[in-house]
Every structure is written in C-alpha cells, then in structure tokens.
Amino acid sequence: MTQEFPGFAYKAAELSAYIFSIDTFIISLKNEEIIKFVAPHPDDFKQWLDHHGIRNVNPADG
C-alpha cells in the first residue's frame, strides 16, 4: 500500500494517531498538529491507516 491516500494531504509517515467520530477522522500528526478529515470512503481510509500502523485511539469504535 502506498504512503499516500487519494485526496488526503499527508503521508502515512507523518501521522501518529487517529479517532473516528460520526463521519470525521481526527488525526494527530507527529509534529503535534491536530487535523480533521472527512473521507469519501471511511472504511477504505481506516484500512489504509491500520495498514500503516497508525494508532486508533478508540479501537472499540471501529
């Protein structure tokens, strides 16, 4: 799987952790910035995050 996800401005290597709520991913970057991302296909984006070992802060939600 590639380091880039279509339509997402960051590479997997820049990400630290995420949480998914309703329709929005809240993502912590390694530079300590927090961003929000609404993925057109949330299941595909979550799979991409998990594949790259990005920590899910609340794994019970998904």
Detailed description of the structure:
The protein has 62 residues and is α+β, with helices and mostly antiparallel strands. It has one domain (12-57). 16% of the residues lie in helices and 31% in strands. The chain contains 1 helix and 4 strands. The chain has one helix at 42-51; strands at residues 15-21, 24-29, 34-37, 55-56. Strands 3-2-1-4 form a 4-stranded mixed sheet, covered by helices on one side. Strand 2 and strand 3 (34-37) form a beta hairpin. It is globular, with a radius of gyration of 10 Å. It starts with 14 loop residues before the first strand and ends in a 6-residue tail after the last strand. The mean pLDDT is 94.
